[in-house]
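fold-stage: in
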Amino acid sequence: MARKSARTAAVQMVFENMLGGDGGEETLRGLIEFTPEEDDQKYIDELLSGVEQNAEALDASIEKCLKGWTLDRIARVDLAVLRVAAYELCYERETPDAVIINEAVALAQKFDSPTAAKFVNGVLSTLLSQREEMKAPEENA
């Protein structure tokens, strides 16, 4: 399975949805540079529905990690990357955290800039540390 390519496609479709598109099957075929196998398509669908269903919680989690920024100041493409990565970090436990963050940073650099990549890395690293802090009291109980 091409998980990296599937993640890239999901970010592109989340971005399109943010701009008012429908992110349907035709859009997917026009955006991606590979033909998804069944596992790839399933993963893309899981990411898209997960981001959509948890949008408020994801945005709230991202917003808590911003220093001197608000969600509306973030470039839409960077916000799409952050939403997909935040979903994976908070809800999907199959992929290692470091892989999620590294691929999100690479996507921010690919679709925006090195500065955006550093920003995405900082936000996701903060999100990861906050997630770990929230788990600690439960583990001690």
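fold-stage: in (second)
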Amino acid sequence: MLNFALMIALALVSAAAVLTLWRLVRGPSPPDRILALDTLSVNVIALLVLFGIHLNSALYFEAALLIALLGFVGTVALCKFLLRGDIIE
């Protein structure tokens, strides 16, 4: 039963990632693309966690933590660049 639920969750999160990737490519403005990139990182984190549960491996959880950290820093840096034109003052 758990494997069935994991497969459904993997399929739905994968579909969400594909739709977010479409918004990233198609986004009409830079803030929309930044938001799509942040959402895509959250979807990738969810996929890694679900895949880690499926394989019963802790390595995927560590990779998800690294991607979460990089996604947050990247989003903050892009937003700061968009607002000020400079990342480091």
